[in-house]
Amino acid sequence: MVARGALERLFRPEVLALSAYHVADARGLIKLDAMENPYPWPEEVQEAWLDSLRGTPVNRYPDPQAGEVQQLLRQYDGIDESMELLLGNGSDELIQILLMAVARPGATVLAPEPTFVMYRQIANCLGLRFVGVPLRADDFALDGPAMLDAISQYQPAVIFLAYPNNPTGNLFDSHWVRQIVAAAPGLVVVDEAYGPFARSSYLPGLHEHEGLLVMRTLSKLGLAGLRLGYLVGDPAWIHELDKLRLPYNINVLTQRSVVFALGQQALLASQVQRILEGRTWLHEALSALSWVQVFTSAANFITFRVLGVDASDIHQRLRQQGVLIKNLHPAGGLLAHCLRVTIGTEQENQAFILALKRCVS
Ligand code: PMP
C-alpha cells in the first residue's frame, strides 16, 4: 500500500483534494438519474447500424479531424460557414480542453450555481480559481446584477452558462445572458447540452460576439454511450484549443456510428417528441402532489423539492422500490430538499410516480 506521504510528495494538492465524479450503481433499477434518452433504437435500425459498422478498419487510427462527423453536425445544427467546430470525447473533454488553455496563474472561472459540477471540478483540478454566483433562491433564475458585479470584480477568463441549466432545468433570461456576454472580459461558453429539448439556442448569435462559444453534445439526444460533444466558435479560438486536443480523441466506432445516427433524424426527432410529452405528463403528475414543489424544466429532466419530508429518505425509498433518481439534497444550499428525475419512457414515468406516492403513504 502506497503511503500517503508518497502521494503527497508526487501529486499536486489540487488532485488529492478532489472527490471523484460519483456514478451510482443502477443495476436492476429503473434508471432515471443521468439524463439519458430511455428509448433504444428499433430492431431494424439496430441492424442497419451494425451493417454500417461492418468492415470498420479497427487496425487503423481514426480520421484525426472526424471530417465527415463535423460536416454532418454542421448541417444538423445549421452552423454558419464562418464558425469552426472542436469535437470532444463528450463535452466533458471540451470543458477540460478549454480550462487547460486558460489555466494561467491566478485565472478565474465563473458560473452561476448550482450548475453542472464539472466546471468547478475541472477548474479546481487545474489550479484555477472557481467563483460560483448563487442563482435566485425562489426560481433558480440568474441573479443578473450579482453576475455583473462578480464579472467586474474577478475578470473571469471563462464564464459557463448551462442553457438550460443542470440541475435546475431552466433557461436563463436572454436579457441577462446578453448583458453578461457584453460585460465579459474573456470567453462565455453557453453550454447547450440540453438544447434538443429547449428549442432555443445561442448558435445564431455567435457572429455577434467574438468571445461567445456554444457547446453541444449528442449525449442527451440518445447517444450518450458514443461520447461526442462539440464546441462552436470563431476559428481563432478553435485553432488554439485544437492544439490541446489529443490526437484521435473521437474513436472510429463513434465516428461511424454518429454518421449513421445523424442519418436517422426522423427517429431522433420522434424520440425527443416523446420525451417532451413525458415531461409534460411528469410535470403535471408531480404538481398534483401537495408535498412537492416542481420547477419548470426546458430539459429532459425535472427538479423538484419535497416539503415536510426528508429528500434523502425519499431517494432511498424510491431505490428500494427499484427506481433510481438523483438526490440533490447532499449538495445543500439552494438544492436543499431537491431531487432530480430524468424523463423516462411512459411506463418508467408512471412507475416513478407510483413509487413516489408510496414513499409517503
Ligand atoms: N454540460 C451539462 C450542462 C451537462 O449536464 C452534462 C452532462 N450531465 C455535460 C455537459 C456533459 O455531457 P457529455 O460529456 O456527455 O457530452
Keywords, please?
alpha/beta, 7-stranded mixed β-sheet, 4-stranded antiparallel β-sheet, 13 strands, binds 4'-deoxy-4'-aminopyridoxal-5'-phosphate
One letter per element, helices H and strands E, the order comes to: HHEHHEHEHEHEHEEHEHHHEEHEEEH
Average pLDDT works out at 97
Give the overall silhouette: globular
Contiguous low-pLDDT stretches (5 residues minimum) are: none
| Gap from first CA to last CA | 49 Å
- Which oligomerization state do the chains in this entry correspond to? single chain
Q: Approximately how much helix is present in the residues?
A: 40-55%
Q: Decide which structural class fits the backbone.
A: alpha/beta
Name the beta content range: 15-25%
Radius of gyration: 21 Å
Bound molecules: 4'-deoxy-4'-aminopyridoxal-5'-phosphate
The largest sheet is: 7 strands, mixed
Secondary structure tally: strands:
13
Strand order of the largest sheet: 2-8-7-6-5-3-4
Number of alpha- plus pi-helical segments:
14
